[in-house]
Amino acid sequence: MPTTSTAPGSSDGDGVFRIVHAFHPACGKQFAIVTIRQNWGEELLYYRDEEGRLIAVPACWTDRVEPDPVVAISAGRSPFRLQDLLELVRLVAVIGQEAVHES
Hints:
Layout lengths: L15 E3 L11 E3 L2 E5 L2 E7 L5 E5 L10 H5 L8 H21 L1
Antiparallel strand pairs: 1-2, 3-4, 4-5
């Protein structure tokens, strides 16, 4: 099984993690790791929710990975990186074009 590095200030490698992504509904909650996998070049942590369903969360949304430097430097003023905002603009444009073609 692949392993993830434990960043300073994160869980101590005992098989648990905390979701730290500000907009995730489980932000602040701690979970036991079921497995860790690489999917499409991204490390995912798998855990079981309260109903026992297997859920995946990107490792970068947890305390097991150092925060993105841009997000850390913004000190809470902006939880988004420039590349995330540019991708959002692109997706909104695509959705807008699809809506125009459907009407």
